[in-house]
């Protein structure tokens, strides 16, 4: 599908790392869509070169900043004025339909079915569920819509100082007009919601499809020990991110993204926090230039093989995986 794409945004190298993990997760789960990333001039040349390896389309755009410190103070996120830059996604008119995903999201499975939805489809915001969260949404690029959105910015402005305020004002029928435009919450599961309604997370969390590390603290603000698989950080807010998702983010980063960043000199070996043998291990995972691995066998085929006594003890049917499955059932 060349006229449909996932789109994300990075206005600096830190969010660039997020975009690389997101893009890797989409590729790992065999998306058939294009991958596009909007970057601003603050993103370094070398980071752009790495993004180019993973993304089909790396688009340079101007920063759009609300500069609205009053509303951003209410949101307690003074840095989010630049999220208006996200609105540039409507200018990607060589695509007929797109799914925007924040650079702090990651897919846990293939979510290409999102493209069956119409503009503007999104999941409820965990803080105010009559508003949608603008971390994941389906839209149709259109210069007309883009100009109308800029008019809202110039006129009324954004009630939260960022893109989510503008978009909820513009698509203000979202909460009442068409239930098909309400994406299930599992397409934008934010850490905040996990802790604010833990019983629901225990009940439905296993169905999660997209994780969103919403909030001030992002996965890339921590350090990771690849040997012990432990994550450390100065901030107490480490505990506001779910440890399993955080570990998955760091695993993806260490083995798929870091090798590319080292190859392009964005990160030096001494800055990785990894031991020499871990660096070698990480570098051996560079797989982007190699042919993709064979598709995993279906669960039916796997069941048949298992019943014929041909279990994949070293892979999908390893003791570790079986134990994980049991643990998740018992939880
Ligand atoms: N973003 C960016 N640079 C910034 C802040 C935000 O590129 O300095 C982009 C990035 O794609 C990010 C999105 O805007 O995921 C929304 O910001 P963020 O995810 O930090 O907001 P939250 O979801 O935590 O409210
Ligand atoms: C929200 C969204 C984010 C958006 C920000 C500013 O919390 O998660 O995507 O950029 O608000 O409006
Ligand atoms: Mn976000």
TrEMBL record:
It comes from the Eukaryota. Pathway: Glycan biosynthesis; glycogen biosynthesis. Its EC number is 2.4.1.186. Its cofactor is Mn(2+). One of its GO terms (cellular component) is nucleus. It is an enzyme of class 2 (transferase). It catalyses: [1,4-alpha-D-glucosyl](n)-L-tyrosyl-[glycogenin] + UDP-alpha-D-glucose = [1,4-alpha-D-glucosyl](n+1)-L-tyrosyl-[glycogenin] + UDP + H(+); L-tyrosyl-[glycogenin] + UDP-alpha-D-glucose = alpha-D-glucosyl-L-tyrosyl-[glycogenin] + UDP + H(+). Its main location: cytoplasm. Residues 287-308 are annotated as: Disordered. GO terms for molecular function: glycogenin glucosyltransferase activity; metal ion binding. InterPro entries: Glyco_trans_8, GNT1/Glycosyltrans_8, Nucleotide-diphossugar_trans. Glycogenin participates in the glycogen biosynthetic process along with glycogen synthase and glycogen branching enzyme. It catalyzes the formation of a short alpha (1,4)-glucosyl chain covalently attached via a glucose 1-O-tyrosyl linkage to internal tyrosine residues and these chains act as primers for the elongation reaction catalyzed by glycogen synthase. Belongs to the glycosyltransferase 8 family. Glycogenin subfamily. This is glycogenin glucosyltransferase. It comes from Erpetoichthys calabaricus (Rope fish).
């Amino acid at each position: 599908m060349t006229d449909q794409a996932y789109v994300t945004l990075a206005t600096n190298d830190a969010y660039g790392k997020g975009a690389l993990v997101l893009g890797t997760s989409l590729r790992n789960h065999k998306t058939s869509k294009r991958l596009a990333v909007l970057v601003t001039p603050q993103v370094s040349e070398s980071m752009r070169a790495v993004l180019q390896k993973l993304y089909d389309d790396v688009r340079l755009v101007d920063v759009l900043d609300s500069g609205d410190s009053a509303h951003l103070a209410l949101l307690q996120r003074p840095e989010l004025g630049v999220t208006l830059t996200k609105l540039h996604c409507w200018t990607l008119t060589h695509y007929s339909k797109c799914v925007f995903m924040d650079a702090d999201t990651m897919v846990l499975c293939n979510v290409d079915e999102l493209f069956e939805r119409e503009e503007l489809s999104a999941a409820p915001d965990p803080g105010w569920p009559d508003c949608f969260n603008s971390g994941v949404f389906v839209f149709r690029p259109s210069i007309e819509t883009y100009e109308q959105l800029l008019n809202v910015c110039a006129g009324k402005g954004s009630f939260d100082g960022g893109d989510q305020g503008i978009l909820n004002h513009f698509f203000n029928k979202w909460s009442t007009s068409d239930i098909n435009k309400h994406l299930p919450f599992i397409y934008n599961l934010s850490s905040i919601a996990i802790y604010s309604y833990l019983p629901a997370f225990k009940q439905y969390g296993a169905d999660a499809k997209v994780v969103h590390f919403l909030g001030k603290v992002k996965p890339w603000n921590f350090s990771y020990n690849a040997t012990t698989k432990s994550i450390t950080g100065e901030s107490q807010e480490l505990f506001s991110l779910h440890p399993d998702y955080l570990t998955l983010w760091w695993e993806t980063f260490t083995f798929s993204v870091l090798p590319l960043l080292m190859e392009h000199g964005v990160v030096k070996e001494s800055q990785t926090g990894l031991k020499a043998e871990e660096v070698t291990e990480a570098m051996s995972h560079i797989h982007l230039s190699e042919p993709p691995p064979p598709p995993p066998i279906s669960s039916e085929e796997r069941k048949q093989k298992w019943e014929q006594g041909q279990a994949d003890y070293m892979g999908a049917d390893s003791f570790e995986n079986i134990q994980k499955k049991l643990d998740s059932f018992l939880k």
